[in-house]
Amino acid sequence: MTASEHARRIKGAILYSIPFLLLIFFPKIFSPILFVLLSCGIPLEFYMAIRKKYIQGNTIRPVRLVIIATGGVALLSGLYFLKSKSPCSVIQPFVFSLLGGVLSISLLKLFSPFKKNVLFFELTFISFVVALWCGAGVFALTGISYNYRPVEYLIPLLSVIWTSDISQYYGGKIWGRTRIVPRISPGKTLEGYITGLLFSTIFGTIVFHILSKFDLWNSFLIAILIYGGGVGGDLFQSAVKRRYGLKDMGSLIPGHGGITDRIDSLLISSPILCMIIHK
Question: Which residue, 35, 79, 174, 239, has fewest beta-carbon neighbours within 10 Å?
Answer without folding.
Answer: 174
